[in-house]
Please model this.
Amino acid sequence: MKRCTKCILPETFPGIKFNDEGVCNFCTSFKGVEHMEVKKQEYRQRFESLLHEYKGKGTYDALMCYSGGKDSTYTLAILKEEYGLDVLALTIDNGFLPGQTTENINNVVGNLAIDHLLLKPRFDILKKIFRECSENSIYPPKTLERASTICTSCMGIVKFSALRLSLEKNIPFIAFGWSPGQAPITSSIMKNNPQMIKMMQRGVFDPLHKIVGDEIRPYFLEASHFTSSYSFPYNISPLAFLEYDETVIFDRIGQLGWEPPKDTDANSTNCLLNSFANKVHKKQFGFHPYAFEMAKLVREGYVEREVALEKITSIEDKTIVELVEKKLEEQ
Ligand SMILES: [Zn+2]
Model:
């Protein structure tokens, strides 16, 4: 398969074009690492001035969407230890958390002395959703350029559950552990706007509602959340503007009792469903759902091209995929 000679994007990626040297349009329009550094500095300052403004004003300073993966674990540590924030960690268990991840989460929140909420949605509901997503891509193709249908559904539940909780508990920030490959710097600090949220929620809620009906409502905002009695939080993705170095990350979280799970795939350190979701996505669209993210990390100098290439071309572990299929088929 033809791939960009600079990053790793394949010819099957939507909207891709190559120049005579085989370099893709995403790479040729990239403004360079120095430009990124200036932007990062700018966002870091903005982040710090927002903290100054909001710290100590809500029930907690920040609600961390805590998957138990390496990036969200690292973000949680930074928020608590470097910035001294009072953080509430929220984990959504989609039924596919590896045992090691549960252990990691318990170690980390214990060692950091952080309040932790675990939300485990009914598996009969999730199963119906995941099954449907493995057969039909229920979202517009544009939505699925950077994540699989399954991941998009799961993340929708996470994002809107977190937003609902942050409104009800009056928490000014929702933190995500997105890597610089996943979060564009320009959206790393975003004030949630009720009108925009209403529209975005419809994009996820409606397709899921079609599959499972009203059972999906507790994970999303109700009409009452859009009244003026609630103030909408900022979404922050600190890893987009802070240091991002895998060696530093593994070292730091290792000290908090975090160990890599052995039974996940190369692209995820916290979800067994991921391998299956990736496999389905490649079949549906002809490119790996992590291709865009990994390409961005290569382009911006965070990851070696070879390492990224290996991650997105590795074949899914058959045992894990079969385990997931079996769990989704069970009555
Ligand atoms: Zn490229």
